[in-house]
Amino acid sequence: MTHIVDHSQQTTTRTIHYVVADSSYRGTVPVDKVQTITWAVSTDEVTGQGVATAQNLYAMQTTPALAGYTPNVSEVPQKNYGAVSVADLPAAGSNDVTVTYTAAKQAATVEYVDDDHDGAIVGTPTTLTGTTNGTANWDTANQIPANYALAKGQAASGIYTFTVEPHQLIQIHLVHQLATGTATTTRTITYVMANGDQSKTPSPVVETMNWKTVVDKVTGISYAAPLNNYAAVPNPVITGYTPHSTVKQLTEGPMLTSQLSKLNMNVTVLYTADKQTVAITYVNTKTNQPIKTIVVTGKTDDPIVVPDLPGYTLDRSGDPTSFEPGLTKFNVPATPNEGSGNTGGGSDNTGTGTTTTPGDPDTGTTPDNPGGTTTPGNPDTTTTPGEPGTAIIPDNPDVVTTVDNTGTAVAPETPATSQSEGQGVAAGSQTSGGNVQTESTAKGFATADVSTEQVPAQAGLAVTTSTTAKTSGQVNDSKTNSGKLPQTNERNDQAAGLSLLGLVTGMLSLFGVKRRKHDNG
Q1: Which of 22, 107, 416, 510 has a C-alpha 20 to 30 A away from that of 299?
Q2: CATH classification of the domain holding 187
Q3: How many whole angstroms separate alpha carbon 91 and alpha carbon 52?
Q4: Which domain holds residue 309?
Q5: How far apart are CA 209 and CA 153, in angstroms?
Q6: Is 145 in contact with 205 (CB distance < 8 Å)?
């Protein structure tokens, strides 16, 4: 007789629990894993004993990774039971496994970066150690490289909390230390007189530009920023002189301190003397009448040379000595020399300058003024009486002669013309150099064109004069040279001799007639 065996199934489980041993952990914890084994149970109904045979097993379970944390086991091994009595089946929970995660070790590097050099790493890095979600203190004391300073907003110390990142980094931002200072540059303006009175040269002007300098103590490079600029400097006014440049404002921006030397500047302003024109009138001290007027030109502060006037002694004691702005004219007293014939009015002649033309030399002509200019005998000849051996050129106070005091005569823009009814006036002139031409016209009478090729002896100059006399309808040349008597004196002597001879003859004739009548009677 056999026992009846009852066949049935049972199951058992194994739970794998996952826990994180970190109260600060805020992440996700792996879900528990439950494993099940199915058992085939055979039970003897007579004896009540049974046998359970496992139909599977508890499989090996790999522990899930949790960043920044380390499990106590990397895996839960498999478990295989085989056949066991029903009484030995694993009790519930007896095979449960708990996997515990603990914070992993962490490290962070503290490095210093140069914000003034595109974040370049400087100095020596340091390392902080701890565990995930743990903290560590950091401090820059005695860690900052030389000549650096903490950047704006950068803390000097702090607490670092480690993370699960593989390369944790703490960057301390630094900037270069700067040393400030000052510098100056100057612009010197020098005034130069190209000519004229050097004592009028203005004093130099020195301008200063102030700079703030900054030296980068890491690189050693120095920069400068301007605090002001070079202002425009008006040229000093020197009456009678013209400056030929202006000094303008100069503004500069920041630059390397080594470049400041180019801002130490020297500027030169050149002045030249202006041209001046002065009319000089010779005034006869005997008649207080003008003799002639000349115009001299020169530069401001150049000496004025008053040319000599033949036949006259000049009083130069009151003459201006140099050309000055505003000086346009002045008079020079001229006293006629003894025997010069210059004792009349304003002209160089001894008379009034009246010109007469006698008809028949036998009849004689009485000039309007015995001291004037006469043309006896030959009407084609005009002579200018004066001191024997000296060429005398009558002057006209209306005639203006332009003289360049540098030695060049300048013709006036409009030649002065003297006109007088019934009188012929010859115009004469003197210069300090060069050629001068003047013109004088007498209506209906002779006109003398005078060209002064050289001035009278003065300051090493010699004079040679030539005159050309013109009469209406005819032209005759008369040249007067030193050592030749004027023709006028010779013809006057002949006329005087003829007149005396005629008078004596007439008296003898009358006497003879009377005697003849007396004898006849």
Answers
A1: 416
A2: 2.60.40.4300
A3: 13
A4: 275-491
A5: 35
A6: no
0.85 exceeded by pTM: no
Complete DSSP assignment for 385-431? --STTS------TT-EEEEETTS-B---SS------TT---------
Residue 334, domain member (yes or no): yes
What pLDDT is recorded for position 395?
41
- The sign of the torsion formed by the CA atoms of 513, 516, 520, 521 equals positive
Q: Are 288 and 336 contacting, i.e. CB atoms less than 8 angstroms apart?
A: no
Which residue has tokens 């008379």? 351
- In-domain check, residue 357: yes
131 has pLDDT over 70? yes
Q: Which of 351, 334, 320 is nearest to 288 (CA)?
A: 334
Residue 243: inside a domain, yes or no? Answer: yes
69-100: per-residue pLDDT in tens? 999 999 999 999 989 998 889 988 899 999 99
What stretch of H or E contains 497?
helix 487-520
**Number of folded domains in the chain?**
4
Task: Give the separation between CA 301 and CA 319, rounded to whole angstroms.
Answer: 14
Q: How far is it, in rounded angstroms, from Cα 63 to Cα 320?
A: 123
Q: How distant, in Å, are the alpha carbons of 76, 97, 136, 296, 422 from that of 33?
A: 10, 9, 36, 128, 155
Give CA torsion, residues 265, 266, 267, 273, to 10 deg: 170
Q: What is the pLDDT of residue 16?
A: 96
